[in-house]
Structures are given as C-alpha cells and as structure tokens.
Amino acid sequence: xxxxxxxxxxxxxxxxxxxxxxxxxxxxxxxxxxxxxxxxxxxxxxxxxxxxxxxxxxxxxxxxxxxxxxxxxxxxxxxxxxxxxxxxxxxxxxxxxxxxxxxxxxxxxxxxxxxxxxxxxxxxxxxxxxxxxxxxxxxxxxxxxxxxxxxxxxxxxxxxxxxxxxxxxxxxxxxxxxxxxxxxxxxxxxxxx
DNA sequence: CGCCAGATTGACT
DNA sequence: GTCAATCTGGCGG
Length: 193
Fold this sequence. Notes:
Elements: H1 13-19, E1 24-29, E2 32-45, H2 58-64, E3 71-76, E4 79-85, E5 93-104, H3 106-113, H4 125-131, E6 150-153, E7 163-166, E8 180-183
Antiparallel strand pairs: 1-2, 1-6, 2-5, 2-8, 3-4, 4-5, 7-8
The chain binds a DNA duplex through helix 2, strand 3, strand 4 and helix 4.
C-alpha cells in the first residue's frame, strides 16, 4: 500500500472529496492496524460556504486556509469529527470523512466503540473517530506521512456508476450543489435522517 | 469566564 | 419519528 501524496489535496474540495471514496484510512493504535475503506464523504469550502466552519473564524478557519493534507479535528455534540484540509492555492476547504467500511482490526474497533455490530462501527462521522481512537491530538497533523499513526492510502477506485451524491447531512443552510458523495448501496454508509 | 449554536448519536415513544 | 445529552470552539464582557 502507498500513501496518497500531498498534491492530491491541492485541488477543488469537491473533486478531492469524490476521489477519496475507496481510499483506505489507516490508524496505527498500540501496534495494531485499524484500517477501513472510505465510503462516504462531504466537501466544505471556505468563508463563501454557509455551512463551513471557516465562517466562524478562529483556528479552524485558519486551518482550512492553511496547509493541505493535514487533519482538521473539531468537536461537536461531544463527538470528534475528522476532516482533511483540501483546497486550491489561495482558498479554503476540507473533506469530512463521514463513514467507512471496516477492514483490519475489527475486534479492537468494537472495543473502542463498545458495540458488537459491524455495520454500526464506522457508519457516521462521530462513530468513525471513536472506533479509530482519533481525537484532538491529531488536529493539524499531516496525513501524508505515517509518523503520527494516522494516514490515508490509495485503495480500489470505485466505478463512476457506483458513486452517488446528495446534499450534505445536518447543515442548516446548504449550497445548491450536492457535496456529499457515497458508494451506492454500500452497507456502511451512514443512515440519512 | 459565561453563553450558545452545532458537519451527532442512541435511547425511547 | 422525537429528543436530550452535556462537549467544543468562538465570541463578548
């Protein structure tokens, strides 16, 4: 397996978001490889995006406009949400990792999540971070190296007809363009409300 | 330091 | 479907 390079993330957030489907998220946790295949993602832009955290200013905004391919982790409703900073030069943006299909380390992930149901293990942004023991410590850490125990590798590229799109989940005011992408029919996509 | 909205989840009617 | 838990980050005082 090989790491996805930093340049991959220096493009329009929606493009990166779509192409991240099928990629493999790896977490080295106490010597155990916890791995999963990304099946659901959302794109966020900079201050021009009404749903973007960049609107609120502060450190999260600066991070979204900063180096690409670093983790952006922040808390909401007492969960941690994992994003990857991605944007074209001079703009802001990030990809929210919303759901993934478990591959390796399922037993350890079930212990971390305290559930036995594999389908519910990684099928939501808050569930995913808990199962992978991802928290604020990873904020601003680069994902293009394996040094920090969290990184993203190339996976199996989905066929275009297997990629579905919709509006983003849980946002008060969305852009007119669909910015949520997921693998059609995949069992591990988060349930819509 | 207090206030409050929120890219959620899981328990319950 | 409904609803509250009780966390984080930004902001105002």
